[in-house]
Each structure stands twice: as C-alpha cells, then as structure tokens.
Design a protein that fits this description.
By secondary structure, this protein is α/β, with parallel strands linked by helices. The protein folds into two domains: 3-166, NAD(P)-binding Rossmann-like Domain (Rossmann fold, 3-Layer(aba) Sandwich), CATH 3.40.50; 175-307, N-(1-d-carboxylethyl)-l-norvaline Dehydrogenase, domain 2, CATH 1.10.1040.10. Helices cover 50% and strands 12% of the residues. It is built from 14 helices and eight strands. It has an eight-stranded mixed sheet, with helices on both faces. Strand 5, helix 4 and strand 6 form a beta-alpha-beta unit. The longest helix is centred in the middle third of the chain and has 23 residues, at 168-190. The protein binds 1,4-dihydronicotinamide adenine dinucleotide and 1,3-dihydroxyacetonephosphate (13P). The active site is at residue 178. GO terms for molecular function: glycerol-3-phosphate dehydrogenase (NAD+) activity; glycerol-3-phosphate dehydrogenase (NADP+) activity; NAD binding. Its EC number is 1.1.1.94. It comes from Paracoccus seriniphilus. This is Glycerol-3-phosphate dehydrogenase [NAD(P)+].
Length: 313
C-alpha cells in the first residue's frame, strides 16, 4: 500500500509523521512552502521519508489517499480533483457536516468518487499528541471486509492503535457532533457557569448525539466508542481543542481568530438544519448554532435551555 495525505494542516502533518514509521508518505498542501517544520505544528521535524509537496500530481501516484482537509473545504476540493481520486482507496479524516448538502465527508466522497473504497479515520487525538508519538487509539470505519483490515494494519503503528468498525455513519457522526458539544462545553466554562453545568452539557449533548446518529443509521455502540464518547470527552475537557477554545471565548465575550479551523461552528448550523428536516429535537446543537452566529446572548441561551419543559431522562 502506498500512502499520500492531502491537506498539510496540523492533522495531515501529524498523520504523516505517525505513518512515516511504517514507510514513505506523500504530504500535499496547497501552500506547502515549508519542508522540515510545519508552522501549524511547531517543534515537530519531518522525518526524511515524508515527501512534502505543493504538487498534487506528484502524490497522486499513491493508491491510498488520506483526506485531511476541513469538512467545509472538502466539497469544493472534490469538485476540482475528485476525478483524479476516483478508484483509489480514500480515507476521510474531517470531523464535520457539509453545510450546503447536510451530508458528511464520506457521502461527499462517494458522490465524487463512486469507484473508490471509502473509510473514515476518527477518534480522540490531538495533532500535537500524534506528532509527538504519544499513544493514541482511533476508530477506522470501512464497509469493506477486505479493505478495512488491510487499512487497519497499514495505518496502525506501535503508538497509533486503530479499532475497526463497519459503521461509517456512526464513526463520522460521532466526530462531527462532538465538536458542536465541545463548543457548548467551552461556552459554559468561559461564562463561568461551572464544572457541574459542563457535566450536564456533555451528558445531554451526548444524548442529542446518539439520538440524531441513531436516526441517521448509526449503531449505538459506535457512539459509545472512541469516535463518539471518547472524542467528546477529550474535546469537552481540553483547552488544546480549538472547538472548546472557541466556546471559551464566546462564553467570556472575547474575540476569537476566525482563521482557526473550528469545525463545530458550521457543523452546528448543519446539525440544526438536519434535525429540523427529520423532526429531531436538538436543543443544544441549535443553541450553539445561534450562539456561533451571534444571534443570541449566552445569558438568553442558558435561560432558554434551563426553562424548557421538564421531561424524563
Ligand atoms: N488538529 C487536530 O488535532 C485534529 C483535526 N482533525 C480534523 O482534521 C481536519 C483538518 O483539521 P486541521 O488539519 O487541524 O486544520 P488546519 O487548520 O490545521 O489545516 C487546514 C488545512 O486545510 C488547507 N486548506 C484550506 N482550504 C483549502 C483548499 N481550498 N484547498 C486545499 N487545502 C485547503 C489549509 O491550507 C490548511 O493546511 C478537520 O476536519 C479536523 O476536525 C481530526 C483530528 C485531530
Ligand atoms: O478532533 C480533535 C481531537 O480529537 C481536535 O479537536 P479540535 O478540532 O477542537 O482542535
């Protein structure tokens, strides 16, 4: 198996570093003018067997491609380059739902590359941790009983342990939805509402995640696994998370650098629209969408959530 990664942001670069333990890796970035240290991942030197390039053609000789682009970028990228990827094994790593189609990365890839085998790599993992070689466990979702195990072995290393599932919908939705709840958790802490309120938001947020994912065909055990509960726990509790930090700044009424990749912001809007379309109640996600747009104050959002009709758990 020959591997290339498209997207030389923090995560694509970290995956390249991890997978270089198994052999050569191509890493493409549209503006990859650096070669040995990515400014998005300071302090990490690229091993010699990573070919960092801004020439897409040169990395498309690989038979297996990891797509490490943000979710809202993927659709446009596939429109431009999908034909050249079609037929290859494609592994999605984006954690979001496309705002214009309300579909996840795997559906976008399937539409653009109908002859490809598609997998999803997701779970609790900060790019900096992976790049430093800290032990990490992830979910690899692939519907193919042949390609799934092959990928699982090729993408695992002594410090990167992949658990296999065939539940693509569950793995993908867990990763996308946890980012929305992480923003909510950040808001709670940023606004000074306390750890008890955060535990409530995480738990009720997880209930929303499992409800929506279940309606969209996910298996419950996937949501309680690494790609759901695992990643939710990480992202709602660590200031390393950009989604959590975005929430912190919203809660504290402080500015935030909008150039930072915060997947949960657009995905909250997509989730709210999706929930309305299928008639599912997602009050936390809907509130995060409104807060991220600046359409409601934190005080009003808390009041609205706390005064909803009382119900059974
Ligand atoms: N950073 C992390 O710790 C983790 C990130 N992820 C996921 O990986 C995905 C990518 O995130 P990061 O690498 O962290 O983001 P990042 O912000 O570090 O990098 C994004 C990359 O996308 C590139 N890009 C933007 N627009 C583009 C376009 N039109 N064409 C080509 N390239 C374009 C940028 O140049 C940049 O290199 C996200 O879905 C994120 O949720 C998943 C696990 C961990
Ligand atoms: O997905 C992640 C950890 O698993 C990274 O989270 P952020 O995108 O919030 O930084």
């Amino acid at each position: 198996m020959t591997i290339a990664i498209l997207g030389a942001g923090a995560f694509g670069t970290a995956l390249a570093v991890a997978l270089s333990a198994n052999g050569p890796v191509g890493l493409w970035g549209r503006q990859a003018s650096w070669r040995r240290e990515n400014p998005r991942l300071p302090g990490i030197t690229m091993p010699d067997n990573i070919d960092v390039t801004d020439n897409l053609t040169s990395v498309l000789t690989a038979d297996t491609i990891l797509l490490a682009l943000p979710a809202q970028i993927l659709r446009g990228f596939l429109a431009d380059h999908g034909a050249r990827l079609n037929g290859k094994t494609l592994v999605s790593t984006a954690k979001g739902i496309d705002i214009s189609t309300l579909t996840g990365p795997s559906a976008l890839i399937a539409e653009a590359c109908p002859e490809s085998c598609i997998a999803v790599l997701t779970g609790p993992s900060f790019a900096a941790d992976i790049a430093r070689g800290l032990p990490t466990a992830l979910t690899l979702a692939c519907a193919s009983g042949i390609e799934g195990p092959r990928l699982q072995h090729a993408l695992s290393t002594p410090v990167l342990r992949l658990y296999l599932t065939s539940d693509i919908a569950g793995a993908e939705l867990g990763g996308a939805l946890k980012n929305v709840i992480a923003i909510a958790a950040g808001i709670v802490i940023g606004a000074g509402l306390g750890d008890s309120a955060r535990a409530a938001i995480i738990t009720r947020g997880f209930a929303e995640m499992t409800r929506l994912a279940g309606r969209l065909g996910a298996r419950p055990e996937t949501l309680t696994g690494l790609s759901g509960l695992g990643d939710l726990t990480l992202t709602c509790t660590s200031p390393q998370s950009r989604n959590f930090r975005f929430g912190l700044s919203l809660g504290a009424g402080q500015p935030f650098d909008r150039a930072t990749t915060v997947e949960g912001a657009a995905t909250a809007g997509a989730v709210a629209a999706l929930a309305t379309r299928i008639g599912e109640d997602m009050p936390i996600a809907a509130m995060v969408a409104r807060l991220a747009e600046g359409a409601v104050s934190v005080e009003k959002a808390v009041e609205n959530l706390m005064t909803r009709p009382l119900k059974e758990e």
